[in-house]
Design a protein that fits this description.
Radius of gyration: 18 Å
Order of helices and strands: HEHEHEEHEHHEHEHEHEH
Largest sheet: 8 strands, parallel, barrel
Strand order of the largest sheet: 1-2-3-5-6-7-8-9
Structural class: alpha/beta
Distance between the termini: 15 Å
Number of strands: 9
């Protein structure tokens, strides 16, 4: 069962104002580890057509019943991961939902902060915000220049922590960033609660753990071919956990059929349950 993520109170500003400063959120890491558990499911990314809201609701309910304590979802131009997560949180009872990864070009830093804080307030202990710089075409779709990824992410995180014109819900939540290089991992250790590399080799996972230290979340995305033996998937997950990952989310290859992918994740769940 997902454990509630603690929500430390912020000090009130000395002067009357509607603007609140975000607190350090390191205290959410231990309870986020407990809530996520060692293994999660990454919802299949179907590119031929979009699965309906009803199909997605039923998918996460099935995965929750199968024993997954967390599910993750992607974002791309034309898709809002935070809206999707809100729908799926409402459809489940205990499951943690995370964005893996919400694209920074899709919304302003203050909008991201306000939306994430509201989700965390509405579903205590059940939401993780994953953020990433994505790709140049995603920046172009928002009419922006891609720039230098690490500097861009640093600026975004700093703006999220700044006061907003409207008050944010007074709640802390775990925030991680997508990163497959040492500089982004180091930034995650400095300004976020952890990092989420995609398809890393165990050696990189071990290096990321060293860079982050013990007090940050290390969430690893990996995928399994539909029909792959469950024992092989479990062995791969164990290898990542032994290298230092806190949580491994297992998905299917990009473009896989949504229904077939959910079926596969459900079928391999018993082999992952004992990890």
């Amino acid at each position: 069962m997902a454990a509630a993520i603690s929500s430390p109170r912020r000090a009130k500003p000395a002067a009357a104002t509607t603007m609140l400063l975000m607190p350090p959120s390191g205290s959410v890491v231990p309870s986020a580890r407990e809530a996520l558990g060692p293994v999660g499911a990454y919802l299949p990314i179907q590119t031929s057509s979009a699965p309906s809201a009803g199909q997605q609701r039923e998918a996460v309910r099935r995965l929750e019943r199968a024993g997954y304590r967390a599910a993750w979802t992607n974002e791309a131009p034309g898709k809002d991961a935070l809206v999707q997560v809100a729908v799926l949180l409402a459809a489940t009872e205990r499951m943690v939902l995370g964005t893996g990864i919400a694209n920074i070009w899709s919304r302003s830093p203050q909008t991201a902060q306000g939306a994430a804080a509201l989700l965390a307030q509405a579903y205590p202990g059940r939401f993780v915000l994953g953020l990433g710089v994505g790709h140049p075409h995603q920046a172009a779709s928002a009419g922006r220049e891609f720039g230098k990824p690490v500097a861009t992410m640093r600026g975004y995180l700093e703006q999220m922590a700044a006061p907003g014109r409207m008050p944010y819900p007074d709640v802390a939540y775990p925030k991680i960033i997508g990163g497959n290089g040492p500089r982004m991992v180091a930034l995650a250790g400095e300004l976020a609660d952890g990092v989420m590399p995609a398809m890393p080799a165990p050696d990189f996972t071990a290096t990321a753990r060293q860079l982050l230290g013990a007090g940050k979340l290390l969430v690893v995305y990996t995928h399994t071919l539909i029909g792959q033996d469950a024992a092989d998937v479990a062995a791969s997950v164990r290898e990542q956990l032994e290298a230092g990952a806190d949580h491994v989310t297992v998905g299917t290859p990009f473009g896989a059929d949504f229904a077939a992918g959910v079926d596969h994740l459900e079928q391999i769940a018993p082999a992952l349950a004992g990890i």
